[in-house]
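User: Quick sanity check before I run a bigger batch. Here is a single chain. Can you write out its predicted 3D structure?
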Amino acid sequence: MSNSVTSALANLFSRHIQANGEQGQGITDYDPDWQSPCQLAKRDETTIFWQPVDRAQDFDLKNIEQALDLTIHPDITAFYCRFFAPTLAVKWQQDDISLIQVWNQEDFEILQENLLGHLMMKQKLKQKLTVFIATTANDEYFISLLNATGEIFLERVGCEPKQKLADSLAEFIEQVSVQ
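Assistant: Done. Predicted structure follows.
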């Protein structure tokens, strides 16, 4: 897995917890029907404390690669397969974004289905293959990694990526600010 992405994520988790947490632990919404290995304890009736959980090294996206006969950029595998953590509200420059993370194993399975659907749509449209990493406040746009190069783009749904944001996923993660 990409060590630079893993390091950037670990650093982001630390920055996020330091800015928004209590006693060295993150805080996120509590849903009794949506449990996670990264949950620590209930803070109150609506929120819980959390810490990122390093997942076993054998998680990957090979099923998607095999289904579509492609190779997924290694930064995406590091981004989605290394940790259990909540999706993080962060800022890219002045814009609010949600950096997608995997909360539990069921969430990972749902993510894989969504990635597969997205990549199939890109192939059908004969567009450059991208993999989404974050949502924006505007539902027409999302942030993606260009699979061929690892560069990060702002992308409009159904369109080719146009606005480059960073040269790499690690660089992008390091440049987001916590809210």
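Residues 105-124 form the longest helix (20 residues).

User: Great, the batch can go ahead then.
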